[in-house]
Task: inverse folding
């Protein structure tokens, strides 16, 4: 693999100048799940969406007890500090110049060995070093989330965090860093724990990077550049470069995505930077997809470009592997489709309608229009793939509708990680 993207040239000292706030959508209130507060919807659509919304009833919050691990002393005499309150963590991290950007690196104990996690952290620290050099007026704080699934893993979670924090102090001494030890699963748990501290610190932006992507040199610096240029509003995301694994599923899904491009034209949660007000209070427990939540908060059908507050940065690139073993891929797609269904049921109709017609199922002729941008054959192929995807989507949607109709709601959607983490190293 090659990368022809060079690091952005260091420019003048950047400063944080937030622009005017943008419109943020809110999910429909709980009463709307009985059909109330949807007065502008035709009855069949109102009934369908409200009933599907009732078909999913998880815990209302992702909140769990968190142990905040902070570096203490110096790198030569390292004595970590552990606190249990977000306010105490914020007080320890604030310093003379509070951070403007919070970056979150979520992972969990069983997601590889300590050596593998250290290697991935080193790459991230390299990208943060570039960010600090190119934007010296934008101080940052790094949160490293380490989830555990059993009590015996909790101490190992803290131990690994202490080692990773020491490593960060050695590699980038000026960087403020905080570890988060918390029970999993669920990426929103880690995000919400970090966002709570970021809000207390007054950060204008929060971003996160998954542990299964590789950022090209300059990626974070370019995201911050575009975020600042947009007045620290909305969301910016890296452009994803797909690669296939040895699995047939990976090759097949990669080809299908190249044609159908389902929901890929807005920032994804593998590498994203978002205005803090978009995530204020954290993600509600009802939503399991971070990038889906950001998209529905910011999508604005009233604008000429409804995705104008959701920007992909072409020269900020990250690499990832498409899919994995067939069984794991099937569970992951099912979880993704359930998330789409809940979002389409919960959010205001104009937002849901635009997402369905132009983002998720755009080009599904004759229902949503024909994509002739690359010729008739391509358009027909795209439509065929979209209809296959829609068939799976509709089947799960019918199940959700019946659950809501008979008051047997789905209580949770199983987390669906891939069993192995393979990252790429661009040359």
Result:
């Amino acid at each position: 693999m090659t990368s022809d993207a060079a690091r952005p040239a260091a420019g003048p000292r950047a400063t944080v100048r937030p622009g005017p706030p943008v419109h943020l959508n809110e999910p429909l209130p709980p009463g709307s799940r009985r059909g109330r507060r949807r007065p502008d919807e035709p009855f069949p659509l109102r009934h369908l969406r409200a009933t599907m919304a009732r078909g999913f009833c998880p815990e209302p919050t992702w909140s769990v007890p968190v142990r905040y691990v902070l570096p203490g002393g110096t790198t030569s005499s390292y004595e970590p500090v552990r606190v249990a309150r977000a306010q105490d963590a914020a007080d320890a991290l604030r310093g003379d110049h509070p951070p403007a950007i919070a970056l979150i690196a979520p992972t969990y104990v069983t997601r590889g060995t300590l050596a593998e996690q250290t290697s991935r952290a080193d790459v991230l620290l390299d990208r943060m070093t570039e960010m600090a050099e190119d934007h010296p007026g934008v101080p940052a704080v790094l949160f490293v989330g380490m989830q555990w699934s059993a009590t015996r893993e909790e101490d190992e979670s803290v131990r690994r965090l202490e080692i990773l924090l020491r490593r960060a102090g050695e590699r980038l001494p000026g960087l403020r860093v905080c570890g988060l030890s918390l029970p999993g699963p669920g990426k929103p748990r880690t995000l919400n724990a970090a966002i709570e501290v970021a809000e207390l610190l007054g950060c204008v932006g929060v971003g996160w990077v998954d542990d299964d992507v590789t950022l090209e040199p300059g990626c974070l610096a370019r995201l911050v550049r575009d975020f600042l240029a947009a007045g620290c509003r909305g969301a910016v995301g890296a452009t994803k470069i797909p690669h296939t694994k040895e699995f047939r599923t990976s090759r097949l899904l990669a080809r299908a995505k190249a044609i159908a491009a389902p929901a890929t034209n807005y920032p994804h949660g593998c590498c994203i930077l978002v205005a803090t007000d978009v995530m204020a209070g954290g993600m509600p427990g009802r939503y399991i997809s971070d990038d889906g939540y950001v998209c529905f908060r910011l999508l604005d059908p009233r604008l000429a470009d409804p995705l104008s507050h959701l920007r992909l940065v072409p020269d900020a690139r990250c690499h990832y592997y498409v899919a994995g073993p067939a069984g794991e891929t099937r569970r992951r797609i099912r979880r993704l489709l359930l998330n789409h269904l809940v979002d389409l049921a919960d959010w205001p109709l104009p937002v849901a309608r635009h997402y369905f017609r132009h983002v998720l199922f755009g080009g599904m002729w004759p229902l949503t229009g024909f994509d002739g941008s690359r010729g008739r054959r391509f358009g027909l192929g795209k439509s065929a793939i979209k209809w296959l995807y829609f068939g799976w989507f509709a089947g799960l949607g019918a199940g959700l509708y019946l659950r809501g109709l008979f008051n047997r709601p789905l209580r949770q959607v199983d987390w669906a990680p891939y069993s192995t983490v393979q990252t790429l190293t661009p040359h």
Notes: The beta strands are 67-70, 81-83, 101-108, 140-148, 176-183, 205-209, 214-215, 235-244, 271-275, 310-322. The CA atoms of residues 129 and 172 lie 7 Å apart. The chain has eleven helices and ten strands.
